[in-house]
Write a structure and sequence with these properties.
ten-stranded parallel sheet, single chain, Pectate Lyase C-like, 314 residues, mainly beta
């Protein structure tokens, strides 16, 4: 797409590819800025079994939209849900409801800036709201959204085996919730300056993994509600949050975390630099996790005698 601002939405009209090696790709022309800013409806909408589509390098501006910016869903039959949609290197902003709403499975969201969504202030509007399974969120920046930066939750359960990693979640009312499904995992995330919870595991969540996150200056650091079962909380750093850790769940495994009075010695937390300085108690004191072979900067773990706690390896 050549550069320009288009008062146009893409609603169920992109043809499907056949695999990730043969997708249909819609991308900005190299070096040019492409903005989609329709006057109504969604900016992007996928349903009717659309699949293997890549959206790359677009600005999706929902300033004139009264609902979500991006929706991946189904029509009258859940069996026709869209899936295998990848949105990358893009900006999603200004939605009245969710920046991204996902009913589908096996979708990927990579290197996105998702911000200023949830103009309808009713505690139900988020940067990203994922209700399906086997979705990936990687290297995104989620900020200034009215409720959660990102929520994995479905009222009927079945939000399973999703992964969020290497992502910044900051300046929202709340940070990240992993809920209502089995096997959801969050690791190498930076969660900071959110008004209420930083990271919440609850609402029927089971077998949740919370690994190597750095959590700073939130109302709560890590909160496990009564709806959490069999969570594993390991290698996290929580600092200067109102309550560092609260566990109301059952059968939680919690070890190799740094919170309380031990200063993690961030380089400059006020400026958003959560690398650790020499002498940090987070260095070489974590547990080995095969699921987390690299840090937020993609450097291999471990560097030194053992894994570091938190999102960065030193």
């Amino acid at each position: 797409i050549r550069g320009g601002t288009y008062a146009e939405a893409l609603l169920d009209n992109i043809p499907s590819g056949t695999s990730w090696t043969a997708p249909v790709t819609l991308k900005a022309y190299p070096g040019e800025t492409v903005t989609l800013r329709p006057s109504a409806s969604w900016v992007l909408h996928f349903q009717n079994s659309q699949s293997y589509i890549v959206i790359d390098g677009l600005i999706l501006d929902a300033a004139n939209v009264s609902i979500d910016a991006v929706k991946i869903t189904y029509g009258s039959n859940p069996a026709t849900v869209a899936h295998h949609i990848r949105i990358q290197n893009s900006e999603i902003k200004n939605a009245a409801w969710q920046g991204v709403l996902v009913d589908g499975h096996d979708n990927e969201f990579i290197n996105l800036s998702v911000h200023n969504n949830g103009a309808v202030a009713d505690n139900l509007r988020h940067g990203m709201y994922i209700e399906g399974s086997n979705n990936l969120v990687d290297r995104c920046d989620l900020f200034s959204n009215s409720t959660w930066g990102i929520q994995f939750y479905n009222t009927t359960g079945g939000t399973n085996n999703n992964t969020i990693r290497n992502t910044k979640i900051h300046g929202n009312a709340k940070g990240l919730v992993l809920g209502s499904g089995s096997g959801n995992t969050g690791y190498n995330n930076l969660i900071y300056n959110n008004s209420a919870e930083g990271l919440d595991v609850d609402y029927g969540a089971s077998n949740t993994g919370v690994y190597n996150n750095t959590i700073y200056n939130n109302g709560y650091g890590i909160y496990l509600g009564s709806g959490s079962t069999n969570a594993t909380v390991r290698n996290n750093v929580v600092w200067q949050s109102g309550t560092a850790y609260s566990d109301g769940g059952s059968a939680t495994t919690q070890d190799h975390n740094l919170w309380g009075t031990a200063d993690p010695r961030f380089v400059n937390a006020a400026a958003g630099d959560f690398h650790t300085q020499l002498g940090s108690p987070a260095i070489d004191t974590g547990a080995t996790l095969s699921l987390v072979p690299t840090d937020f900067d993609a450097f291999p773990r471990p560097y030194g005698a053992a894994y570091d706690m938190g999102a960065f390896e030193r």
